[in-house]
Specification:
alpha+beta
């Protein structure tokens, strides 16, 4: 039986006091609520309380000062049955929603199974919900003819094979934004959530946009720079398997076709000649892809001009001939199987198309199309053999140097040094970084894979691209403003060409009667080609021939603006200077060390601000790889010299033997024999002793590289 609770007099007194306190509290609360604003302020001042805030905030502050608990904070004495009913309804609604979500999940799983997908439905629905609620409509692409450094992103489609392996499309492109939906588990290891990242670039291209759309927005508007004694450099960058080579080959075909079309129509009477060369940089060495992969020497002459000795340059007369040569060069490019890709491009392939004036070796313009090697994280290279690790380290070092060169070029007004000698890649592209900014254009195409397992690689690529230049105009409002300006001038900045007799200049003709472009004598007139004239239309082929003649003639006759930097002229592109191989190599090696040290110092300085910073181990790994590369060249050279020396000694030994045991030899000087043999043996011992000592040092460095490679666990940038 339940024991009946006994109510004592003390309980009655406590209940009485509680009722009195509540009554007094309600009375004070009603008194304060009925006060005017002025009375509330006056009472607060008496209580020495702050008087800021809204009226309700001041009233609550005054109630607290009087010890009054606001009625809103008091537990409401509702009907118990109504509260139970409300909780029941909420529980039933929650169960209903869970059943509906479970049913939708099962239907989605069945649908995915029928489509051959094997993806996580929870993450798939979370990504779809984020896209529906956050991802904005794509804006039109911006024509970037006036942008010195153009950074754009291209996302490739996700493959059915990837979806069958459980890959989700975790990338959303909405020009100019890129969203990365990173699928993660919470700390409990069970709860799923998305970590969303947003980036903005000059242009972004989704999986539904083809290479032609990218080319027309980013490359085609820059072709006029080539006819203005300029240099256009286009890079394709990204992890292995992200579509870099596919994108670059499409751009190569379209750019070559347009260049020859312009030369045959708009600029036909100027008779420009085209030359093509194609080489690759693999493992820090340069090889000619058009000449049986002949090893090339990269030297710097006394005038600080970088020269590639022995590079074959072929004259081409048509677009199809050029395309055939480029396809052959692409087919012999170095590729290897890595842990990330079965056929990964392990070299930087550089296609250089040069325009020259007829009958002259002077360069008029250059188009450089660079298909960069597939980037990988340092930790992904640990399972590779030493050769693949050294390749990866060299690739990552060159990508670091490329990023710093582009950033320095973007901030060149502040006098930043451009460390182009820090890698072979940036060294051979020196003209792209050192020429006048008004005559240089750089396009970086960052290619990303959509798969969820590649999300960290894609973030790596996007962060690398995001830091290539300053984001002074990064807001969407500024982007929309630029689009409006572009729409107001749909011709893409084409000059309004008028037939002004004062600007017409008789064009000299060569022996064949073909018009030859006028070449100015001084730097001031050369600089006027770009500063005084506006841009040619994006659709250059539509300009009629007479207007083009007037335009080019006027460019050569106008005066140069005062105060323009004339440190670069057309002579910068010439590569016909003589040099001493030994002096050029030594001079270049010394400067390369300084630039590499500057690169490492810059990276160390940025580590404090970079959340995904490069570790000290990775810097040491790069330094060790550089040392191994140098020692490899030295030991191979020493081995060759040892073989030559050994052959010479062997010849001398044959002479000694013939003097001792030759036909008809009856007598010989034994002392002379011993003396000569002693000299030869000492020479042999010295040669192989030096080679053995060098080999042991090289072996020790290889062991150090093995140990350091296992401690590297960060991204390459």
């Amino acid at each position: 039986m339940d024991r009946k609770q006994v109510v004592t007099q003390a309980d009655k007194n406590r209940e009485k006091f509680r009722a009195q306190r509540d009554a007094m509290n309600d009375k004070r609360e009603r008194w304060i609520d009925n006060m005017s604003s002025e009375d509330v302020l006056e009472e607060l001042r008496k209580k020495k309380q702050p008087t800021f805030g809204t009226k309700q905030e001041r009233i609550d502050r005054l109630k607290k000062a009087h010890g009054v608990t606001p009625s809103s904070n008091k537990p409401k004495k509702g009907n118990v049955l109504q509260e139970i009913e409300r909780l029941k309804q909420n529980r039933e609604e929650r169960r209903k929603n869970m059943e509906e979500a479970k049913r939708n999940k099962m239907e989605r799983e069945i649908e995915n199974e029928m489509m051959g997908k094997n993806v996580d439905v929870d993450f798939e629905q979370m990504i779809a919900g984020h896209r529906q609620g956050t991802v904005k409509a794509s804006m039109p692409h911006l024509k970037t003819q006036d942008v010195k450094i153009n950074v754009c992103v291209r996302k490739r489609p996700i493959f059915a094979k990837e979806q069958a392996n459980g890959e989700l499309d975790c990338i959303s492109c909405s020009n100019p934004l890129v969203y990365v939906h990173e699928c993660k588990l919470k700390i409990d290891g069970i709860s799923k959530h998305l970590e969303n990242h947003t980036f903005q670039f000059d242009n972004t291209f989704g999986e539904g946009e083809d290479t032609d759309s990218l080319y027309r927005s980013s490359i085609q508007p820059l072709l006029d720079v080539l006819y203005n004694r300029g240099i256009v450099t286009c890079f394709a960058y990204g992890q292995t398997g992200s579509g870099k080579t596919f994108t670059m080959r499409g751009i190569q075909t379209q750019a070559i076709t347009d260049l020859f079309q312009l030369s045959d129509t708009v600029f036909k009477e100027y008779g420009f000649e085209f030359y093509v060369s194609f080489f690759e940089i693999y493992g820090g060495k340069c090889f000619d892809l058009l000449n049986n992969k002949k090893k090339l020497a990269i030297l710097e002459d006394a005038n600080q001009k970088v020269q590639i000795q022995g590079l074959e340059e072929r004259a081409v007369g048509s677009a199809q001939e050029t395309i055939d040569i480029i396809e052959y060069a692409n087919s012999v490019r170095t590729t290897h199987c890595t842990s990330s890709n079965d056929e990964s491009s392990r070299s930087h392939a550089i296609c250089k198309i040069t325009l020259r004036e007829p009958g002259s070796s002077r360069t008029h313009g250059q188009l450089l199309l660079v298909d960069l090697a597939g980037s990988e994280r340092a930790q992904d290279c640990q399972s590779n053999n030493r050769q693949r690790r050294l390749e990866g380290a060299e690739i990552n070092k060159s990508l670091l140097a490329l990023k710093e060169c582009i950033r320095a070029l973007d901030s060149r007004g502040s006098g930043a040094h451009i460390p182009f000698r820090a890698s072979k890649l940036t060294l051979v592209l020196r003209d792209s970084f050192k020429s006048k900014s008004t005559k240089t254009r750089i396009v970086m195409i960052a290619c990303i894979s959509p798969g969820s397992s590649s999300a960290d690689h894609s973030l790596n690529t996007l962060r690398y691209s995001d830091r290539l230049k300053e984001k002074s105009d990064s807001s969407l409002n500024e982007y929309a403003k630029m689009l409006k300006q572009q729409e107001a001038n749909p011709s893409g900045g084409a000059p309004q060409i008028r037939r002004d007799p004062g600007n017409l200049v008789a064009k000299p003709r060569n022996a064949s009667g073909v018009a030859k472009p006028k070449v100015s004598a001084g730097k001031h007139n050369q600089n006027a080609l770009y500063k005084q004239a506006q841009k040619i239309s994006n659709e250059l082929a539509s300009i009629d021939k007479n207007s083009a003649e007037d335009y080019l003639s006027s460019l050569h006759t106008r005066d140069n603006p005062v105060g323009e930097d004339n440190s670069s002229s057309s002579d910068e592109l010439d590569q016909d200077r003589d040099m001493d191989d030994g002096a050029g190599e030594a001079r270049l090696h010394e400067k390369a060390k300084k630039d590499l040290q500057l690169l490492h110092n810059t990276i160390r300085k940025e580590n404090n601000d970079n959340p995904n910073k490069m570790s000290q181990e990775l810097l040491e790994f790069h330094q060790k790889v550089d040392k191994i590369m140098e020692e490899e060249e030295e030991i191979l050279q020493m081995h060759m010299e040892a073989i030559k020396e050994d052959a010479q000694i062997l010849t001398e030994e044959g002479e000694i033997i013939s003097n001792v045991q030759g036909v008809g030899v009856l007598d010989y000087d034994i002392d002379d024999y011993v003396k000569r043999m002693e000299v030869l043996i000492q020479r042999k011992l010295k040669v192989y002793k030096d080679l053995y000592s060098k080999l042991q040092d090289f072996k020790a460095d290889l062991q150090d590289e093995e140990q350091i490679s296992h401690t590297v666990n960060t991204f390459y940038y």
